[in-house]
Design brief:
Blueprint lengths: L10 H25 L15 H23 L18 H24 L1 H16 L4 H22 L10 H14 L1
Helix pairs in contact: 1-2, 3-4, 4-5
Length: 183
Amino acid sequence: MTQHGFGSLHRSTVAAKGAECALWLAIAAAFTAGSFAFDDTLTSYRWGPAAWPRAIALLVAGAAVLQFALALVNLRPAMPRWRLRRPRPVRLETVLRAGAIVLVPLAFAAAIGPVGFFVAMPLFVAGFLFTAGESRPRVVALATFAISLTVAVVFTSLLYVPLPLGTLSPFDAVNGAIVSLLS
């Protein structure tokens, strides 16, 4: 059985999954290390402002280890050479979509300062849904409204996190009005 490669695991797959896990663990460690720069005690919040970055870092680290463990459990034996298929060429549409999926969050991060969170968030959600392949306008509109409203309510009314209101003239007024409605 091992003469055809069935008994050996893909070492490159294990190495790739291990490298990905290590990258995510390094990101989580960087988040945790960065949180010590603002680790102050607050009278209004007993865990302090560093609790959320540390919780996110813990979730990222846990997800990375879990994903690596699941990849090892689901790893298949190596295919024999006679069963290997020729890889399909990558289509331009796939490359453009992958690039757009990276650029949409970067555009959101760049826009959040000038136009504010409450204007940028619905644009980000709609743009990301379209980029991810959802083309039905009604679904995009309902999902955008629901996600944006949920995030806004959670951050402003439940967690009392101040979100950027924007620096450009019409947007700061719109963001201020939304904050007034949610408060």
